[in-house]
Backbone:
């Protein structure tokens, strides 16, 4: 499995979030506390929206080496400031360790990253891939279930309705797996953004999803911890969504409920129930 972080809010140096916290994403690449594997060394990636540029498309840096000793990652993170960025460290579930399989995945202004897996992926991979829209199919570069999930969501209307598109993607994966006799196929925590809002999803077919947390509102954290200077630099809208907490600051982290999704946006956030959507209507099936 993998670990990831999504940041939205006051522009900061990427290193302030990726490297500096006590249990930062880089620390988690070696010492994960809540992942299936302790070590996540099968590649990494960061995606960020540059400030004051003519394009709204994000920049992406991905590589196959472990995050903890990559000099380019450290160099970029210490010199790049952004108000919306993703970071991901990979532990492969069977597909090749190659740059095109590292998250986050990008299509136009969209970024996508995933922790989890599709069980029996090798058996249903062809059926899933053939459902991707023809005009999108050629843009798939890797061999992971995560990338196919992204392109299915794009096919099912991500640009117009992100929650609905992810629900239709999840329903299609489960329906396809069911036809092949694969039980409980989907395990996912997903983050996706268009550069303005971040959607985060926690769902699994068996109802035992991987961990996911969202940070407490900054104004509440300032009241709890007036001595923490870093909090004074952040806007009230700043939020982080993470696979596991970046430290042990009391009151800082809240577990995202099972089978739910949240949206982080400039005017606040909200949490909603998540249910896959099937061709014959919304779930559950059976």
Residues:
């Amino acid at each position: 499995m993998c670990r990831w972080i999504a940041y939205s809010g006051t522009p900061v140096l990427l290193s302030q979030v990726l490297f500096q916290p006590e249990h930062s994403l880089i620390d988690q690449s070696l010492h994960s506390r809540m992942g299936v594997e302790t070590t996540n060394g099968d590649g990494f990636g960061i995606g960020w929206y540059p400030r004051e540029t003519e394009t709204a498309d994000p920049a992406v840096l991905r590589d196959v080496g472990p995050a903890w000793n990559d000099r380019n990652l450290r160099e970029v993170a210490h010199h790049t400031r952004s108000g919306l960025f993703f970071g991901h460290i990979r532990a492969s579930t069977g597909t090749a360790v190659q740059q095109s399989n590292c998250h986050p995945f990008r299509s136009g202004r969209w970024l996508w990253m995933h922790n989890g897996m599709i069980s029996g992926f090798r058996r249903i991979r062809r059926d899933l891939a053939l459902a991707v829209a023809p005009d999108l199919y050629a843009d798939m570069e890797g061999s992971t279930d995560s990338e196919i999930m992204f392109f299915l969501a794009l096919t099912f209307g991500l640009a117009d309705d992100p929650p609905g598109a992810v629900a239709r993607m999840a329903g299609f994966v489960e329906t396809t797996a069911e036809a092949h006799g694969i039980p409980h196929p989907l395990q996912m925590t997903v983050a996706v953004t268009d550069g303005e809002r971040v959607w985060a999803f926690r769902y699994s077919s068996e109802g035992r999803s991987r961990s996911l947390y969202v940070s407490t509102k900054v104004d509440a954290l300032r009241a709890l911890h007036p001595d923490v200077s870093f909090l004074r630099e952040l806007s009230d809208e700043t939020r982080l969504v993470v696979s596991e907490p970046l430290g042990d600051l009391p009151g800082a982290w809240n577990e995202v409920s099972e089978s739910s999704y949240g949206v982080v946006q400039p005017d606040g956030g909200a949490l909603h129930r998540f249910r896959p959507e099937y061709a014959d209507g919304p779930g559950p099936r059976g």
Summary: The CA atoms of residues 260 and 273 lie 4 Å apart. The longest strand covers residues 3-13.
